[in-house]
Amino acid sequence: MSTPSTSTAVLGLIVGNRGFFPDHLAQSGREEMIRVLEAAGSRDSKALLAAFKTVDIKYGDPDLYVAKPNGLKFADDRLLEDGSAMFVQWMEDQSQQVLFPEQFANGQPRPRA
């Protein structure tokens, strides 16, 4: 029978793009997570939750990798304050066109086939 370990828990963070998203998006997400972990200063769950509540990435920040006109910030319920979606459509040449929100739109919806 083994004795439970009394050592400190280790936190691991693996960030990847699954071969789909551009590398720079994975990198910016990784950098933001490192900022949150450093702000927490601890692996304590309450400290980590408090650190996530400090995330406030303004629109235009190079680490804001999603089209959020109000930036990215977590609400008290731990969900994003701005729950709006971004709609894109794939084109035949494998490019993407943004359809919504309007301020980011660079195309019109294709007609239904």
Beta content comes to 5-15%
Largest sheet: 2 strands, antiparallel
Helicity, in percent?
Answer: 10-25%
Number of domains: 2
Q: Which outline best applies?
A: elongated
Low-confidence stretches: none
- The number of helices is 2
Radius of gyration: 19 Å
How many angstroms does the end-to-end distance come to?
Answer: 64 Å
Description:
The chain is an alpha+beta fold and 113 residues long. The chain has 2 domains: 10-74, no CATH class; 83-113, no CATH class. The chain has 2 helices and 4 strands. Strands 1-2 form a two-stranded antiparallel sheet. Strands 3-4 form a two-stranded antiparallel ribbon. Helix 1 crosses helix 2. The model has no long low-confidence stretch (mean pLDDT 79).
Give the arrangement of secondary structure elements.
Blueprint: H1 23-40, H2 45-53, E1 56-57, E2 72-73, E3 87-90, E4 96-100
Antiparallel strand pairs: 1-2, 3-4
